[in-house]
Amino acid sequence: MTDHAPLSAKRVALLVEEDFEDRELPLLLELLRAEGLTVTVIGPVADAVYRGKRQEATITSDMAASKARVKDFDIVIVPGGYAPDRIRLRHAMVDLVRDAYEAGKPVASIDRGAQVLITINALRGRVVTCWPSIAIDVKNAGGQYVDRPVVEDGNVITARKWDDVSALTDVVVRVLGGTPAS
Amino acid sequence: MTDHAPLSAKRVALLVEEDFEDRELPLLLELLRAEGLTVTVIGPVADAVYRGKRQEATITSDMAASKARVKDFDIVIVPGGYAPDRIRLRHAMVDLVRDAYEAGKPVASIDRGAQVLITINALRGRVVTCWPSIAIDVKNAGGQYVDRPVVEDGNVITARKWDDVSALTDVVVRVLGGTPAS
Fold first, then answer.
1. Quick count: other Cβ atoms within 10 Å of Cβ B178?
2. Considering only alpha carbons, which residue of chain A is nearest residue B124?
3. Structural domains of chain B sorted by starting position, each given as residue range(s) with its CATH number in brackets
Protein backbone atom coordinates (compact mmCIF):
# COMPACT_ATOMS: atom_id res chain seq x y z
CA MET A 1 0.00 0.00 0.00
CA THR A 2 1.00 3.57 -0.57
CA ASP A 3 -0.17 6.78 1.00
CA HIS A 4 0.10 8.56 -2.33
CA ALA A 5 -2.83 9.10 -4.63
CA PRO A 6 -2.16 7.76 -8.12
CA LEU A 7 -0.26 10.22 -10.30
CA SER A 8 -3.32 10.63 -12.53
CA ALA A 9 -5.07 12.26 -9.58
CA LYS A 10 -2.45 14.99 -9.54
CA ARG A 11 -3.55 18.11 -11.35
CA VAL A 12 -1.12 20.37 -13.19
CA ALA A 13 -1.96 23.96 -14.18
CA LEU A 14 0.20 24.68 -17.23
CA LEU A 15 0.04 28.34 -18.25
CA VAL A 16 0.08 29.49 -21.87
CA GLU A 17 0.27 32.81 -23.72
CA GLU A 18 1.35 33.93 -27.18
CA ASP A 19 5.04 33.65 -28.08
CA PHE A 20 5.89 30.65 -25.90
CA GLU A 21 9.12 28.83 -26.82
CA ASP A 22 8.06 26.37 -29.52
CA ARG A 23 10.56 23.74 -28.43
CA GLU A 24 9.44 23.80 -24.79
CA LEU A 25 5.73 23.99 -24.13
CA PRO A 26 4.33 21.33 -26.51
CA LEU A 27 7.01 18.88 -25.38
CA LEU A 28 6.43 19.65 -21.71
CA LEU A 29 2.68 19.09 -22.14
CA GLU A 30 3.35 15.80 -23.94
CA LEU A 31 5.81 14.51 -21.32
CA LEU A 32 3.60 15.48 -18.36
CA ARG A 33 0.61 13.70 -19.91
CA ALA A 34 2.77 10.70 -20.78
CA GLU A 35 3.56 10.44 -17.07
CA GLY A 36 -0.18 10.13 -16.40
CA LEU A 37 -0.65 13.59 -14.88
CA THR A 38 -3.89 15.48 -15.43
CA VAL A 39 -2.80 18.69 -17.15
CA THR A 40 -5.03 21.72 -17.67
CA VAL A 41 -3.70 24.33 -20.10
CA ILE A 42 -4.66 27.73 -18.72
CA GLY A 43 -4.60 30.89 -20.83
CA PRO A 44 -6.13 34.36 -20.74
CA VAL A 45 -9.27 32.79 -22.24
CA ALA A 46 -10.52 29.22 -22.74
CA ASP A 47 -10.45 27.33 -26.03
CA ALA A 48 -8.07 29.73 -27.72
CA VAL A 49 -5.10 28.84 -29.88
CA TYR A 50 -1.74 30.32 -28.85
CA ARG A 51 1.29 30.36 -31.13
CA GLY A 52 4.94 29.93 -30.33
CA LYS A 53 7.37 32.77 -30.97
CA ARG A 54 8.88 30.87 -33.89
CA GLN A 55 5.40 30.26 -35.36
CA GLU A 56 6.27 26.56 -35.38
CA ALA A 57 3.84 25.27 -32.76
CA THR A 58 0.42 25.98 -31.33
CA ILE A 59 -1.24 25.11 -28.01
CA THR A 60 -4.96 25.34 -27.24
CA SER A 61 -6.07 26.50 -23.81
CA ASP A 62 -8.52 24.39 -21.80
CA MET A 63 -9.51 27.01 -19.26
CA ALA A 64 -9.43 30.77 -18.68
CA ALA A 65 -7.19 31.90 -15.83
CA SER A 66 -10.13 33.84 -14.36
CA LYS A 67 -11.95 30.50 -13.85
CA ALA A 68 -8.98 28.66 -12.34
CA ARG A 69 -8.90 28.10 -8.57
CA VAL A 70 -5.66 27.16 -6.90
CA LYS A 71 -7.44 24.53 -4.76
CA ASP A 72 -8.06 22.55 -7.95
CA PHE A 73 -4.37 22.18 -8.75
CA ASP A 74 -1.31 20.59 -7.18
CA ILE A 75 1.28 22.59 -9.11
CA VAL A 76 1.40 25.63 -11.41
CA ILE A 77 3.95 25.74 -14.24
CA VAL A 78 4.97 28.94 -16.08
CA PRO A 79 6.25 28.48 -19.65
CA GLY A 80 9.13 30.25 -21.35
CA GLY A 81 9.86 32.12 -24.56
CA TYR A 82 8.24 35.55 -24.53
CA ALA A 83 4.96 34.22 -23.07
CA PRO A 84 5.98 35.22 -19.52
CA ASP A 85 6.41 38.85 -20.63
CA ARG A 86 2.70 38.74 -21.49
CA ILE A 87 1.64 36.62 -18.49
CA ARG A 88 3.16 39.23 -16.15
CA LEU A 89 0.52 41.69 -17.31
CA ARG A 90 -2.40 39.23 -16.91
CA HIS A 91 -3.71 39.73 -13.39
CA ALA A 92 -5.65 36.46 -13.23
CA MET A 93 -2.62 34.46 -14.34
CA VAL A 94 -0.26 36.21 -11.94
CA ASP A 95 -2.78 35.71 -9.13
CA LEU A 96 -2.98 31.98 -9.84
CA VAL A 97 0.80 31.63 -9.55
CA ARG A 98 0.89 33.81 -6.43
CA ASP A 99 -1.99 31.91 -4.78
CA ALA A 100 -0.27 28.58 -5.41
CA TYR A 101 3.05 29.90 -4.11
CA GLU A 102 1.50 31.41 -0.99
CA ALA A 103 -0.44 28.18 -0.33
CA GLY A 104 2.92 26.40 -0.24
CA LYS A 105 2.14 24.46 -3.40
CA PRO A 106 4.96 23.93 -5.88
CA VAL A 107 5.36 26.51 -8.63
CA ALA A 108 7.68 25.86 -11.54
CA SER A 109 9.11 27.87 -14.41
CA ILE A 110 11.28 27.25 -17.42
CA ASP A 111 13.35 29.71 -19.43
CA ARG A 112 12.04 33.28 -18.98
CA GLY A 113 9.10 31.92 -16.96
CA ALA A 114 11.07 33.03 -13.91
CA GLN A 115 9.96 36.58 -14.82
CA VAL A 116 6.55 35.71 -13.40
CA LEU A 117 8.19 34.41 -10.21
CA ILE A 118 9.95 37.77 -9.97
CA THR A 119 6.59 39.49 -10.35
CA ILE A 120 5.17 37.58 -7.35
CA ASN A 121 8.40 38.14 -5.40
CA ALA A 122 9.01 34.40 -4.95
CA LEU A 123 12.75 34.37 -5.60
CA ARG A 124 14.19 36.31 -2.66
CA GLY A 125 16.85 34.16 -1.00
CA ARG A 126 16.29 31.24 -3.35
CA VAL A 127 18.60 29.38 -5.71
CA VAL A 128 17.16 29.83 -9.21
CA THR A 129 17.95 28.99 -12.82
CA CYS A 130 16.58 30.60 -15.99
CA TRP A 131 17.42 31.72 -19.52
CA PRO A 132 20.60 33.82 -19.18
CA SER A 133 19.11 37.07 -20.52
CA ILE A 134 17.10 37.49 -17.31
CA ALA A 135 19.77 36.26 -14.87
CA ILE A 136 20.46 39.86 -13.81
CA ASP A 137 16.73 40.38 -13.11
CA VAL A 138 16.66 37.21 -11.00
CA LYS A 139 19.66 38.47 -9.02
CA ASN A 140 18.10 41.92 -8.60
CA ALA A 141 14.96 40.17 -7.30
CA GLY A 142 17.08 38.57 -4.56
CA GLY A 143 17.56 35.20 -6.22
CA GLN A 144 20.84 33.32 -6.40
CA TYR A 145 21.24 32.52 -10.10
CA VAL A 146 22.89 29.27 -11.13
CA ASP A 147 23.40 27.82 -14.60
CA ARG A 148 21.96 24.34 -14.08
CA PRO A 149 19.25 22.36 -15.93
CA VAL A 150 16.75 22.32 -13.04
CA VAL A 151 16.86 23.70 -9.52
CA GLU A 152 14.46 22.92 -6.68
CA ASP A 153 14.48 25.28 -3.68
CA GLY A 154 11.55 24.85 -1.33
CA ASN A 155 8.37 25.01 -3.37
CA VAL A 156 10.06 26.86 -6.24
CA ILE A 157 11.26 24.75 -9.17
CA THR A 158 13.10 26.45 -12.02
CA ALA A 159 14.44 25.07 -15.29
CA ARG A 160 16.85 26.75 -17.68
CA LYS A 161 15.75 26.17 -21.32
CA TRP A 162 14.31 23.87 -23.95
CA ASP A 163 17.02 21.26 -23.45
CA ASP A 164 15.83 20.83 -19.89
CA VAL A 165 12.15 19.95 -20.43
CA SER A 166 12.72 16.27 -19.68
CA ALA A 167 14.69 17.03 -16.51
CA LEU A 168 11.96 19.44 -15.40
CA THR A 169 9.31 16.79 -16.00
CA ASP A 170 11.22 14.34 -13.80
CA VAL A 171 11.36 16.83 -10.94
CA VAL A 172 7.65 17.68 -11.28
CA VAL A 173 6.74 13.99 -11.18
CA ARG A 174 8.90 13.40 -8.13
CA VAL A 175 7.55 16.46 -6.30
CA LEU A 176 4.00 15.22 -6.98
CA GLY A 177 4.85 11.89 -5.41
CA GLY A 178 5.57 9.74 -8.43
CA THR A 179 8.57 8.01 -9.92
CA PRO A 180 9.68 9.46 -13.27
CA ALA A 181 9.16 7.01 -16.14
CA SER A 182 12.40 8.04 -17.86
CA MET B 1 26.25 82.71 -33.98
CA THR B 2 25.90 79.55 -31.99
CA ASP B 3 28.37 77.48 -30.04
CA HIS B 4 26.62 74.27 -31.15
CA ALA B 5 27.77 72.16 -34.06
CA PRO B 6 25.02 71.69 -36.65
CA LEU B 7 22.69 68.84 -35.76
CA SER B 8 23.93 66.86 -38.79
CA ALA B 9 27.32 66.65 -37.05
CA LYS B 10 25.68 64.76 -34.17
CA ARG B 11 26.07 61.03 -34.45
CA VAL B 12 23.48 58.60 -33.14
CA ALA B 13 24.21 54.91 -32.50
CA LEU B 14 20.85 53.16 -32.90
CA LEU B 15 21.03 49.50 -31.86
CA VAL B 16 19.13 46.73 -33.62
CA GLU B 17 18.49 43.03 -33.09
CA GLU B 18 15.83 40.54 -34.17
CA ASP B 19 12.32 40.97 -32.77
CA PHE B 20 12.36 44.73 -32.36
CA GLU B 21 8.93 46.38 -32.01
CA ASP B 22 7.81 46.97 -35.60
CA ARG B 23 5.97 50.18 -34.75
CA GLU B 24 8.96 51.74 -32.98
CA LEU B 25 12.36 51.26 -34.58
CA PRO B 26 11.65 52.12 -38.24
CA LEU B 27 9.70 55.22 -37.19
CA LEU B 28 12.42 56.28 -34.75
CA LEU B 29 15.08 55.90 -37.46
CA GLU B 30 12.95 57.93 -39.87
CA LEU B 31 12.26 60.73 -37.39
CA LEU B 32 15.89 61.00 -36.25
CA ARG B 33 17.10 61.24 -39.85
CA ALA B 34 14.34 63.75 -40.67
CA GLU B 35 15.80 65.94 -37.92
CA GLY B 36 19.11 65.89 -39.77
CA LEU B 37 20.96 63.64 -37.34
CA THR B 38 23.57 61.19 -38.61
CA VAL B 39 22.27 57.79 -37.52
CA THR B 40 24.28 54.57 -37.64
CA VAL B 41 22.27 51.37 -37.17
CA ILE B 42 24.43 48.99 -35.15
CA GLY B 43 23.71 45.27 -34.94
CA PRO B 44 25.59 42.11 -34.03
CA VAL B 45 26.99 42.16 -37.57
CA ALA B 46 27.07 44.74 -40.39
CA ASP B 47 24.81 44.74 -43.45
CA ALA B 48 22.37 42.24 -41.98
CA VAL B 49 18.58 42.44 -42.15
CA TYR B 50 16.75 42.26 -38.82
CA ARG B 51 13.01 41.62 -38.56
CA GLY B 52 10.48 43.01 -36.15
CA LYS B 53 8.66 40.68 -33.77
CA ARG B 54 5.44 41.12 -35.76
CA GLN B 55 7.28 40.32 -39.00
CA GLU B 56 5.93 43.60 -40.37
CA ALA B 57 9.16 45.59 -40.67
CA THR B 58 12.85 45.11 -41.34
CA ILE B 59 15.92 47.21 -40.56
CA THR B 60 19.38 46.75 -42.08
CA SER B 61 22.44 47.27 -39.89
CA ASP B 62 25.17 49.66 -41.04
CA MET B 63 27.88 48.52 -38.63
CA ALA B 64 28.80 45.62 -36.35
CA ALA B 65 28.81 46.44 -32.65
CA SER B 66 32.35 45.02 -32.40
CA LYS B 67 33.53 47.82 -34.77
CA ALA B 68 31.69 50.63 -32.99
CA ARG B 69 33.68 52.99 -30.75
CA VAL B 70 31.87 55.16 -28.27
CA LYS B 71 34.08 58.17 -29.19
CA ASP B 72 32.41 58.17 -32.60
CA PHE B 73 28.91 58.70 -31.20
CA ASP B 74 27.10 61.36 -29.22
CA ILE B 75 24.25 59.14 -28.01
CA VAL B 76 23.38 55.44 -27.94
CA ILE B 77 19.73 54.38 -28.27
CA VAL B 78 18.43 50.91 -27.31
CA PRO B 79 15.28 49.75 -29.15
CA GLY B 80 12.31 47.89 -27.72
CA GLY B 81 10.20 44.83 -28.48
CA TYR B 82 12.11 41.66 -27.69
CA ALA B 83 15.33 42.95 -29.26
CA PRO B 84 16.73 44.02 -25.86
CA ASP B 85 16.36 40.45 -24.56
CA ARG B 86 18.85 39.50 -27.30
CA ILE B 87 21.03 42.60 -27.01
CA ARG B 88 21.61 41.81 -23.31
CA LEU B 89 23.48 38.68 -24.36
CA ARG B 90 25.63 40.47 -26.99
CA HIS B 91 28.79 41.57 -25.18
CA ALA B 92 29.88 44.11 -27.82
CA MET B 93 26.44 45.77 -27.79
CA VAL B 94 26.24 45.87 -23.99
CA ASP B 95 29.80 47.27 -23.85
CA LEU B 96 28.89 50.06 -26.28
CA VAL B 97 25.96 51.14 -24.10
CA ARG B 98 28.05 50.86 -20.93
CA ASP B 99 30.97 52.81 -22.43
CA ALA B 100 28.65 55.62 -23.52
CA TYR B 101 26.97 55.69 -20.11
CA GLU B 102 30.25 55.69 -18.20
CA ALA B 103 31.63 58.43 -20.47
CA GLY B 104 28.69 60.56 -19.38
CA LYS B 105 27.16 60.53 -22.85
CA PRO B 106 23.39 60.24 -23.13
CA VAL B 107 21.96 56.74 -23.40
CA ALA B 108 18.31 56.24 -24.31
CA SER B 109 15.88 53.35 -24.37
CA ILE B 110 12.30 52.76 -25.41
CA ASP B 111 9.91 50.01 -24.31
CA ARG B 112 11.85 46.98 -23.00
CA GLY B 113 15.13 48.64 -24.05
CA ALA B 114 15.47 49.54 -20.37
CA GLN B 115 16.45 45.87 -19.85
CA VAL B 116 19.86 46.74 -21.31
CA LEU B 117 20.14 49.70 -18.93
CA ILE B 118 19.43 47.25 -16.10
CA THR B 119 22.21 45.03 -17.43
CA ILE B 120 24.74 47.90 -17.21
CA ASN B 121 23.36 48.95 -13.80
CA ALA B 122 22.49 52.46 -15.02
CA LEU B 123 19.10 52.80 -13.31
CA ARG B 124 19.97 52.84 -9.61
CA GLY B 125 18.43 55.95 -8.07
CA ARG B 126 17.03 57.20 -11.38
CA VAL B 127 13.50 57.98 -12.52
CA VAL B 128 12.73 55.64 -15.41
CA THR B 129 9.89 54.69 -17.71
CA CYS B 130 9.45 51.50 -19.77
CA TRP B 131 6.95 48.97 -21.05
CA PRO B 132 4.96 47.88 -17.97
CA SER B 133 5.94 44.20 -18.09
CA ILE B 134 9.46 45.09 -16.93
CA ALA B 135 8.51 47.81 -14.42
CA ILE B 136 9.18 45.38 -11.56
CA ASP B 137 12.65 44.64 -12.97
CA VAL B 138 13.37 48.36 -13.20
CA LYS B 139 12.33 48.78 -9.56
CA ASN B 140 14.40 45.78 -8.47
CA ALA B 141 17.36 47.39 -10.29
CA GLY B 142 16.98 50.46 -8.09
CA GLY B 143 15.05 52.61 -10.54
CA GLN B 144 11.98 54.67 -9.71
CA TYR B 145 9.41 53.59 -12.31
CA VAL B 146 6.95 56.13 -13.64
CA ASP B 147 4.30 55.72 -16.34
CA ARG B 148 5.16 58.71 -18.54
CA PRO B 149 5.92 59.02 -22.29
CA VAL B 150 9.57 60.05 -21.85
CA VAL B 151 11.73 60.65 -18.80
CA GLU B 152 15.16 62.30 -18.69
CA ASP B 153 17.26 61.78 -15.57
CA GLY B 154 20.88 62.84 -15.91
CA ASN B 155 22.28 61.14 -19.00
CA VAL B 156 19.60 58.41 -18.99
CA ILE B 157 16.60 58.98 -21.26
CA THR B 158 13.79 56.42 -21.23
CA ALA B 159 10.61 56.21 -23.28
CA ARG B 160 7.60 54.00 -22.65
CA LYS B 161 6.31 52.52 -25.92
CA TRP B 162 5.56 52.92 -29.61
CA ASP B 163 3.21 55.87 -29.02
CA ASP B 164 6.14 57.78 -27.59
CA VAL B 165 8.62 57.63 -30.49
CA SER B 166 7.96 61.23 -31.49
CA ALA B 167 8.32 62.49 -27.92
CA LEU B 168 11.57 60.53 -27.55
CA THR B 169 12.89 62.04 -30.79
CA ASP B 170 12.19 65.54 -29.46
CA VAL B 171 14.15 64.85 -26.27
CA VAL B 172 17.07 63.33 -28.19
CA VAL B 173 17.22 66.37 -30.48
CA ARG B 174 17.13 68.76 -27.53
CA VAL B 175 19.80 66.82 -25.61
CA LEU B 176 22.04 66.94 -28.68
CA GLY B 177 21.68 70.70 -28.81
CA GLY B 178 19.01 71.17 -31.45
CA THR B 179 15.45 72.41 -31.55
CA PRO B 180 12.89 69.70 -32.41
CA ALA B 181 11.28 70.29 -35.80
CA SER B 182 7.88 69.14 -34.58
1. 19
2. A140
3. 9-175 (3.40.50.880)
